[in-house]
């Protein structure tokens, strides 16, 4: 996990064009820890451990090129419902250790997004402590998407909106704007992602930030998360730099 040598001032082989068009907010669908373990004859726990170590590298790469915000989807609501108890224990332990290591780095700001009430109490409490202890740090904003699901986020936003407003539903239907609704999402106040990177070859977003990603560019990398290289990362930035963003117009 992040340590004194995790940050780098270098920008690799990025061209000037790429350096001038780096995404402000990068979303990452962290995928392939288990497949990496299977393909390399390793235990599942080793796959999660290697994935945690890769996180340190990627955060360093992001900061080196000037990315301001990164959102890492590390555990989905579907994972909580479909994985074995053994796998969830292994994943939870890695997430907890990763969050604590980020706090110990005392540099990045950690923000947890997701349905925290679905997590084991100890893990949820640890993540909340990390949020509080890093809230004033000056570095990059690191969003941990844990127990996250896009449909769940939208439903939670609707529930929160209804709880916090005195307006009748009929009045809300007439007056509610996109800007108003965005204030109730997990990412309230955070700019939408410009680029979403998914590892492990899957070419879908799987419900990652469905509201926020409407104008985001997407890049799908074949490498499993633990095997992601600096070259893979730079290829994603190169692809982003060549795209003409129309924002739906």
TrEMBL record:
Identify which cofactors the protein needs according to its UniProt entry. Answer: Mg(2+)
Which residues are Mg(2+)-binding?
A: 31, 217
EC annotation from Swiss-Prot or TrEMBL: 2.5.1.-
Q: Active-site residues?
A: 31, 79 (proton acceptor)
What UniProt keywords apply to this chain's record, in alphabetical order? Magnesium, Metal-binding, Transferase
Segment Disordered: which positions? 1-20
Function recorded in the entry? Catalyzes the condensation of isopentenyl diphosphate (IPP) with allylic pyrophosphates generating different type of terpenoids.
| UniProt GO cellular component terms | plasma membrane
Which amino acids does the record list as binding substrate? Answer: 32-36, 83, 198, 204-206
Question: What protein family does this chain belong to?
Answer: Belongs to the UPP synthase family. Z-FPP synthase subfamily.
Q: Which InterPro entries match?
A: UPP_synth-like, UPP_synth-like_CS, UPP_synth-like_sf
The entry's free-text remark on the cofactor is: Binds 2 magnesium ions per subunit.
What biological process terms from GO does the record include?
polyprenol biosynthetic process
Would you tell me the protein name for this molecule?
Answer: Isoprenyl transferase
Question: Which Pfam families does the record associate with it?
Answer: Prenyltransf
Q: What class of enzyme is it?
A: transferase
Q: Assembly and partners?
A: Homodimer.
Q: Per the UniProt entry, what species is this protein from, by scientific name?
A: Streptomyces phyllanthi
Q: Which SUPFAM superfamilies match?
A: Undecaprenyl diphosphate synthase
| Molecular function, one GO term | ditrans,polycis-polyprenyl diphosphate synthase [(2E,6E)-farnesyl diphosphate specific] activity
């Amino acid at each position: 996990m992040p340590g004194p040598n995790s940050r780098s001032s270098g920008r690799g082989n990025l061209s000037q064009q790429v350096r001038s068009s780096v995404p402000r907010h990068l979303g990452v669908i962290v995928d392939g820890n288990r497949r990496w373990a299977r393909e390399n004859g390793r235990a599942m726990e080793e796959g999660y451990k290697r994935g945690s170590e890769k996180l340190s590298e990627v955060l360093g790469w992001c900061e080196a090129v000037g990315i301001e915000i990164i959102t890492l989807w590390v555990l989905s609501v579907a994972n909580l419902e479909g994985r074995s108890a053994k796998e969830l224990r292994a994943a939870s332990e890695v997430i907890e250790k990763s969050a604590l290591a980020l706090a110990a780095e005392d540099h990045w700001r950690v923000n947890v997004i997701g349905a925290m009430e679905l997590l084991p109490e100890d893990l949820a409490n640890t993540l909340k402590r990390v949020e509080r202890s890093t809230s004033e740090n000056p570095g990059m904003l690191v969003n941990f998407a844990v127990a996250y699901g896009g449909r769940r986020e939208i439903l939670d936003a609707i529930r929160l909106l209804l709880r916090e407003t005195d307006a009748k539903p009929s009045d809300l239907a007439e007056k509610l704007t996109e800007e108003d609704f965005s204030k109730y999402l997990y990412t309230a106040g955070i700019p939408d992602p410009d680029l979403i990177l998914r590892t492990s070859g899957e070419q879908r977003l799987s419900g990652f930030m469905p509201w926020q990603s409407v104008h985001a560019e997407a890049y799908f990398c074949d490498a499993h998360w633990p095997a992601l290289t600096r070259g893979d990362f730079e290829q994603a930035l190169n692809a982003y730099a060549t795209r003409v963003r129309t924002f739906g117009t």
